[in-house]
Specification:
23% of the residues lie in helices and 32% in strands. β3 and β4 form a beta hairpin. By secondary structure, it is an alpha+beta fold. The protein has one domain. The structure holds zinc ion. Zinc ion (ZN) binds next to loops. The site of zinc ion has 8 residues, from loops.
Amino acid sequence: MAEQQTLDCPFCGKHIIKIMYYHKLKITRSCRGSGTTRTATSFSKDRVDFLTGCSNCGRSKEEVEKEYNNQYKKPSKEDIIKRLREAGLDPSKLK
Ligand SMILES: [Zn+2]
């Protein structure tokens, strides 16, 4: 599932950057064991494609995308710990 959205330009703040936003997809797999069928569910990641640059300040879509990633995609400490836990690792053992 995808939908087109409009974002603010990270450089000049104009609400004219068009993106295609792909929602998380639920992926269901069946694992057949001996006599039992288990279902494993996982999610794909949200994905964003930048469709346009900024016609107001003239930045290319590559520049806008890079700036967005710099501003918003930095994982927080909590995210890192959560990811470690989900991967079955103990965050307290890591330094
Ligand atoms: Zn701009």
